[in-house]
Specification:
Chain lengths: 732, 732
């Protein structure tokens, strides 16, 4: 039985000082949201007044709740239960310290059975952790506090604090389920699965365990009862020919239900636990192409690059997806509905994986439940990003505690396929290596608690690539050339920025600064300019106005600017995804940076504007990620009359079944004019296998400046058709 | 008190069958040695009759010893103690099973206090482990049995079995030391060391612990007594300005003595333990040159190569040494004297590290004691090599047990600086990756039990190189070009083969086959030909007669053949060591393959012929590894009159102090003729820093075919002088 609490919160400058005033607190939430609400501030995502919040990260925040009336019988216990408190805190009951903790991911579960109605429960939240006073995003490098809040190229500095998950009282039977976990081992040929139910009771007790297993159609497979005389029980069973859990695009994400009920000797229900489980085998493997890599076949001889091809249930999968950067500045207000909306979009985009980036939080269970359901695999990073997390004993102690909590909470989810130490840890700016205590600890904890799930030290590893993050690079190469020349085993981050819609821009940027864009003010604080600070090459990130005008001329209106920038993002990302797919099996992954954003930016690499507004690139990427599509490798974006136009046709196929032969035609369209270019009679292809086709060779006629479209049509398969918008420039 | 046992041993085809006959057994030893001795066979290393031993690997071997008279008082216990039994075995006492074990590295310590004089103690050794029936060196890929015994390019197939370490009875006081381990933590600035003594008693007891610490000069630093009421005790102390343990060439290998005595309430000595400890900090770091590596500064951006520079006590060290492959086919007969002799040679060669290769055994404590004493660092691999060790639960269980035993036994040694998963595990022929359970288990166990010591998954890692193993490669490049063009972070294996001495060859090869060398028979079985089987490029390994004749013409005698082959090895290895040193700090290590050999080969990459006969390459390598030397980068080995001779001068310096300026001169000598080439007035150099010098440019005059010598002399430092023998061919 849950008992909700009425929380209030107050700020002070010292842990010994009681706040002068308390304001109502929304739990789950954040102290910043409570303060803004109490003082009638406009929402920060609209007002952009992040500086007004700055003092809050250095305050002590005292939550208080007076316990309501309740009755706890002799065979019951009273618990204070909370999924997470951000970040360092104490819990006190009628003034007595009952818990001190650092870390927002280790849940709180306190037996406070000696509490009485009317007692005061306090949660004192400390200032945000900082390893040094200089205000930058290296400050969290001795904590497990997600680094993004300390300021990033798409995130203002605003460090949330407070109770970010549900915090309630629970009256539980003295004997209740402390743990009920369903594990399994698949036979090598998938013909059978051995299932183990592990139960731990709060106290040894004379109860019975009822275990029910239901198949994906909710048909009851069995009901079994076991007497229990101890506090622990492991029960085994096996199931022949289980339906397997497959990622999106490869089959059903079949899930079984495992239901556990504790029954008293009299047959009354004492406790209950229900879980959805999916049977699948995951491995990270090296493709045959990698084992034979001629690059390493030299003397002195080096090793093969680390494996990054996901093999699910024995089938090598090309991984398509995106980097997930948390959909809100405040983790405490991310609703299940918002998660559902965004994950549905990810599923509809034919993606099969999200990389949950280490700069952000590890999401709540609801995120993983939805991913389990819709076949979205998850690459989950621990909260380390772009910093050097030195392995001091104090830091390793917190990391050990937090990582264990995260692993134990999530390891039952079939969607979770990769643990990863964190983001960009072995780069010249972070300088961590495989010898660092933090990374060895994480690898060890994952291996000890969850040995069958792959662990990556960081991203990128050798052979993998991060970037670029623009349509046109400083060396004048476009994504069209950059990715055709690259030969990574996985593109785990790449991006092309685009401005937000006119409607959003109008809301977040004062009218006087809006057009032409001012390089300071809101365009800058909303990440349109100097998003990484004053680095010469990167000064125009993320608006990239010089690139836009280079292709489309001087911008005459905000509408044109937005439309032009968004076109570059859409065509650029389509190019990269399709190129990465062409490089299969040497390449095994394409994950764009990034899917969502935590507040409304003026320009950013995301496909969605906060919270879930699609940029045109979303549809373009969805097209590029279809299981099967007729595709073209196009040498560049901008063309002139008199040039040879030489796209190369491909049939991209990630589907789980073979394709028969057929015909694909290519047409060039410019205004009202159309030139048939080629018909390719292709021979069919095996499951999960691409087919390269012929190259077009067409002399571009003299045409007015503007756009042209290359249309690739698959006869009888219009759902495979593709269209590419390109630029036709005036003859030079 | 130790009681030795008289062992006998017999063979049978089944574990249920008692051998028909027993023969005397030497313990420690091997069943093969016992059988050969009992049957008056000549030593296998001379006779080469390895086929005669083949049946023994598939037999069951039953050791028996009748317990002699002994008296165990009420406050004593009787133990059967053995350091290691090879490989799978049972121990029985008067017929009752008391232990079943797989693994030769986990010591046996059995309380058999119910035994009586006259009882029979049996050790039943199973056949050698094989994962499949095909007789090749992949058979041990599901065991921790060192792979080399199953046949290698320098090792015949001969799989030792039996009791390979001392096996005795011990009468111990009921309360004795189960563990006494001295650990320490150095202050960041080395000004102080915190020392912890961990003690575990066999039973809780009312004894006193006397702890004495002595400095490297054996001066008593303190004596302390502690009462003990429990079975465990941890005692801390600290020491200001400790003398540090330094590797060879960087300072003293200072060692302290930690002595523990258990005293009864009456003051009598109950038990005693003594250990030598060395204080040092070890890290594997990435050099500044690597962090700035332009190779990875591309878009998409990859990570930096893994760190392989040893930093000892804050000082980056260039690592010079060799691969150690165990000095005998039979681990059970490697004497302390043999270890001492070889390790003294390693020390005299100015080496600071031996890589104990994963194909061979992990040596006994005596090896590490000597390494501790003489500043030889050890890179210790677990017993995995060149195979795919699949992570089945049976294999992981043995690997877990064996690796824990190895780590716990060796972690107190200051010389041990790197743990490594094994040899060449992520190559195309082994196909293991960082995702393999075996490698994750080893990393995890090392981290859990010994977190401060670096762990490498395998060798080579990305950036490191293995090979080549010949003077002239199939692409016609010599080591002079191959290594000048390479840019590895560490050369952890490289070799140039040479034949054994005439005296050894005459002993191991029948006179009729000796000269000219026959490509079958003993030259082949002793690894002179087809050492890797019938691989086209490698057919002439390890004699490499075509290379020898290419440089020196048709061989006219065995003496000339040996002298020519040995010259190529000496000059080739000198070139590689000096080139690797020139590439510092991008390159951090040079370890030749290999130092010793386990039986007498006809030709091999080793510097020593079995057991410890120096080839001329040993002196050459010792010259190349001097802390300071005047060196030349020479473009090639073989020259012609009329060519421009263009060596580049270098002052190589790995010493711990700076050098003042001076002069270095170069002279070319050919027969009686001498040409002064250059005098270089160098400016001095910092500690541990090389100094590049000028390039010579000299037109080679017309001279008769033969050898010429380049002599580099450091004025006032004749111990830095170098001489290179080169070939002068007839003008073409």
């Amino acid at each position: 039985m849950k008992i909700t609490l009425d929380w209030e919160v107050g700020a002070s400058t010292d842990d010994k000082i009681i706040p002068e005033a308390f304001i109502p607190a929304t739990v789950p939430g954040a102290v910043q949201l409570d303060w803004a609400r109490a003082h009638n501030w406009p929402p920060v995502e609209e007002a952009g007044n992040v500086e007004d919040y700055r003092w809050m990260e250095d305050s002590y925040w005292r939550y208080c709740a007076r316990l309501p009336a309740f009755t706890v019988s002799d065979d019951e216990r009273l618990f204070f239960v909370c999924g997470g408190i951000d970040y360092q805190f104490e819990v006190r009951l009628h003034g007595d310290l009952v818990l001190e903790q650092q870390g927002m991911f280790t849940p709180v579960e306190l037996d406070i059975s000696d509490a009485q109605p009317g007692d005061i429960l306090e949660v004192l939240v400390y200032p945000a952790p900082k390893s040094h006073p200089k205000s930058d995003n290296t400050q969290p490098n001795q904590s497990c506090k997600p680094a993004v809040s300390y300021g990033w190229d798409f995130h203002p500095r605003l460090v949330p604090l407070g109770i970010w998950q549900e915090a309630v009282l629970e009256i539980r039977p003295a004997c209740h389920l402390r743990r009920a976990e369903t594990r399994y081992t698949l036979a090598d040929d998938y013909s059978c699965v051995e299932i183990t139910l592990d139960i731990a009771l709060s106290v040894p007790s004379n109860v019975r365990v009822l275990w029910e297993l239901r198949d994906p159609d909710d048909t009851l497979l069995f009901t079994r009862e076991y007497p229990l005389h101890d506090a622990q029980l492991s029960i085994n069973t096996s199931l022949a020919h289980p339906a397997l859990w497959w990622p999106n695009g490869q089959g059903e994400a079949a899930r079984y239900s495992s239901e556990v009920t504790l029954l008293s000797p009299q047959g009354t229900i004492v406790d209950h636990h229900s879980a959805r489980i999916g049977f699948r085998r995951v491995r990270l493997v090296t493709s045959a192409a990698q084992w034979d890599d001629r690059e390493v076949d030299t003397i002195p001889k080096g090793p093969v690059k680390p494996p990054i091809t996901l093999e699910i249930n024995g089938r090598m999968i090309f991984t398509k997806g995106a980097n997930w950067v948390s959909p809100d500045i405040f983790p405490g207000r991310i609703s299940d509905d918002l998660l559902r909306e965004q994950l549905d979009l990810a599923h509809a985009a034919h993606w099969n994986l999200l990389r949950c980036w280490g700069g952000a939080i590890v999401q709540r269970d609801a995120f993983f439940d939805i991913c389990d359901e819709c076949g979205l695999m998850v690459w989950q990073e621990f909260p380390l990003a772009c910093n050097r997390y030195e392995g001091t004993s104090a830091y390793l102690r917190v990391l050990d505690q937090e990582s264990r909590a995260i692993i134990l909470r999530l390891r039952e989810h079939p969607s979770l396929v990769i643990w990863c130490g964190g983001n960009e840890l072995d780069m010249s700016w972070s300088k961590m290596t495989e010898q660092d205590g933090a990374l060895r600890l994480l690898n060890s904890n994952c291996y000890q608690l969850d040995p069958a799930r792959p662990f990556l030290m960081t991203s990128p590893l050798m052979g993998m690539g991060h970037g670029g993050y623009w349509f046109l690079q400083w060396d004048e190469r476009e994504v069209f050339q950059i990715f055709a020349e690259a030969h990574c085993t996985a593109y785990t981050e790449f991006g092309v920025p685009a401005p937000a819609s006119v409607e959003i821009l109008t809301r977040i940027i004062p009218a006087a600064e809006l057009f032409p864009p001012r390089t300071d003010g809101a365009w800058k604080s909303r990440h349109g300019y100097n998003a990484f600070g004053d680095i010469e090459n990167l000064r125009n990130l993320w608006l990239e106005l010089p690139t836009i005008t280079k292709y489309f001329g001087e911008m005459t209106s905000l509408t044109t600017l937005v439309e032009s920038g968004q076109l570059l993002q859409a065509e650029g990302l389509k190019c990269i995804y399709e190129e990465a797919r062409r490089q299969k099996p040497v390449c095994a992954m394409a994950l764009t940076w990034c899917f969502n954003e935590p507040w409304p930016t003026a320009a950013n690499n995301s496909l969605l504007s906060w919270p879930s507004h699609q940029k045109p690139s979303y549809s373009a990427v969805r097209q590029a990620c279809r299981p099967t599509l007729a595709s073209a490798r196009i040498p560049k974006f901008s063309w002139r009359a008199g040039e040879w136009f030489t796209p190369e046709l491909w049939l991209l196929h990630d589907g789980a079944t073979a394709l028969a032969g057929g015909s694909i035609s290519a047409v060039l369209e410019c205004g009202a004019q159309r030139w048939p270019l080629l018909t390719w009679d292709y021979a069919g292809t095996a499951a999960n296998t691409n087919l390269p086709g012929p190259s077009i060779r067409f002399l571009l006629p003299d045409l007015p400046f503007g756009r042209m479209r290359l249309l690739i049509s698959a006869i009888g398969h219009s759902d495979w058709n593709s269209a590419y918008t390109l630029l036709l420039q005036e003859s030079s």
